[in-house]
Design goal:
heterodimer; A: about 270 residues; alpha+beta; 8-stranded antiparallel β-barrel; 8 strands; elongated; B: about 220 residues; mainly beta; 8-stranded antiparallel barrel; about 10% helix; about 40% strand
């Protein structure tokens, strides 16, 4: 949260700085409206010292909201980092996934695509590649959901039935035309919900521990999680048909979250 | 918007107009298909390592609150969680990192070394409007020693929905979270580390749900 301004001048200055940033984003309508507002403030606050306190409060609220405005393409969420050296990245992957070797004993999902911010604005020069080998014998477990847990939720026991059929996957994320990258590996858990209209929602979520990084992420350590989903309009009942469908490829949207520390901050 | 009668009212109106996203945790633009819901938020938790019984467990007792990704609190919300340390190797391996992976990244092999000592956690998220989601699934801990003697502690988890109430009643879907805590000083011995963790520490967790409501299943 921004610091409270100590004077009307400081508040307006803060306001102006934020406006300039918003202007750089090209949101002209908003900027013009706020410029008119600023003109109004400048004309009307010269002699209204008795109201300056409430005006400053209102300006501060505006300042805070505008400061938290998300720049297009922003994936840095430092406001929810656990300070002082942690960095939080949040973004989406638009992926195309195919099940390779679908009819063998060693099938694997293979995907590629681009990264976007959380508002689906593409990050220029970004790329993602992943692979997730799967055990065909465990596919049926994807339809089974865990049992309701005993309360209280803040202490054992846990019943983790139907959450143990995980595999392992690796992921690579490339930023800025490949100038920087992060690679991760870790356990992945798939689940499938059959939908009323006959299709299916297919989720794979994964923990990814950083194995290597390049560019600004060289030597970084940390962990990521991702939650990917695919919507399949039809979901056949037999495995052979399911494998054929998945082998044909499908589109997935994957929400990805990194928490990491740069090389120069860890021992 | 009606014409404002004072500067303050004008500013407040603008604030309301541009601040509409404050507290928003719904990201429909990230949903795949017509029936999926996507929730993304942060939770500020207080976590303790309980060592009273035979199996120690981390837990957050609901003292924290959920926030949007900008840190704005969601009134009335809370998170509860429990992570038993049934696998002693989990903490031992927390300081070990996986090896560099082979190219290409979209084909096997996958080398999962140092990511296999997992535990299991359950979570309960209450959104403050009578709706809640409970989940269970595997979790993985990693600890990084920092310059100056401190440590960054990460706990990441992938979980499936096991119970839901309110507007989410009967929902199916998944949760991922990446939680972190920072310790300005990280003691060298395990008993000292246990003692430090037992005192409780602040943690921040970014959480993402993708789910389908009951009416669409």
């Amino acid at each position: 949260m921004a610091q409270n301004s100590r004077s009307l001048v400081e508040a307006v200055d803060n306001f102006g700085r934020i406006l300039e940033r918003v202007r750089a984003d090209g949101e002209r309508d908003v900027v013009q409206a706020l410029d008119r507002l600023r003109d109004l403030i400048e004309r009307n606050t010269r002699d209204t010292t008795e109201h300056s306190k409430v005006v400053i409060e209102a300006l501060n609220k505006l300042h805070n909201v505008l400061e938290s405005h998300e720049d297009p393409g922003n994936i840095d969420y430092s406001r929810i980092a656990n300070e002082p050296v942690e960095h939080v990245l949040a973004f989406n992957n638009d992926e195309f996934i195919e099940l390779k070797n679908a009819t063998t004993k060693h099938p694997y999902f293979s995907s590629h695509g681009v990264l976007t911010d959380l508002h689906r604005r593409e990050l220029p020069g970004s790329k993602v590649e992943t692979t997730f080998p799967v055990d065909p014998d465990k596919l049926e477990e994807s339809f089974n959901w865990p049992a309701e847990q005993l309360q209280p939720f803040d202490r054992p026991p846990l019943d983790f039935t139907n959450t143990t059929g995980h595999g392992y996957s690796k992921q690579a994320y490339f930023f800025d035309g490949g100038a920087s990258s992060l690679v991760t590996v870790g356990p992945s858990l798939p689940k499938i919900a059959v939908l009323k209209k006959g299709g299916a929602q297919f989720w794979v979520c994964s923990i990814g521990v950083i194995t290597q990084g390049t560019g600004k992420y060289e030597g970084a350590r940390g962990a990521s999680v991702y939650l990917g989903s695919a919507y399949l309009k039809t979901w056949p009942k037999k495995f052979e048909s399911q494998a054929k469908l998945l082998a044909g490829g499908f589109r997935a949207l994957v929400s990805t979250y990194f928490k990491l520390v740069f090389k120069n901050d860890h021992s | 918007m009606s014409k404002s009668k004072s500067i303050t009212e004008a500013l407040d109106n603008i604030y309301r107009a541009i601040g509409a996203d404050e507290g928003n945790i719904e990201f429909p633009q990230l949903a795949n298909g017509s029936v999926e819901k996507v929730l993304v938020f942060n939770s500020d938790d207080k976590i303790f390592l309980n060592t009273d019984g035979p199996i120690p467990f981390f837990h957050s007792t609901g003292e924290g609150i959920l926030t949007d990704l900008q840190g704005h609190a969601l009134p009335g919300s809370k998170g509860l969680s429990s992570l038993p340390l049934t696998n002693p190797k989990e903490l031992d391996d927390a300081v070990l990192w996986p090896p560099v992976q082979q190219h290409p990244y979209n084909k096997p092999p996958v080398d999962p070394t140092n990511t296999t000592e997992i535990g299991f956690a359950k979570n309960f998220i209450s959104f403050g409007d009578g709706s809640s989601l409970a989940t269970v699934g595997p979790s993985l801990a990693k600890i990084l020693l920092l310059k100056g003697g401190g440590a960054q502690f990460w706990e990441s988890s992938v979980q499936a929905i096991c119970e839901a109430t309110g507007k989410y009643e009967g929902a199916r879907g998944m949760l991922v979270f990446a939680g972190s805590a920072v310790f300005p000083a990280w003691p060298p011995t395990r008993p000292e580390q246990i003692q430090l963790l037992s005192k409780g520490f602040d943690a921040r967790l970014v959480r993402c749900f993708k789910l389908v409501l009951k009416k669409d299943q």
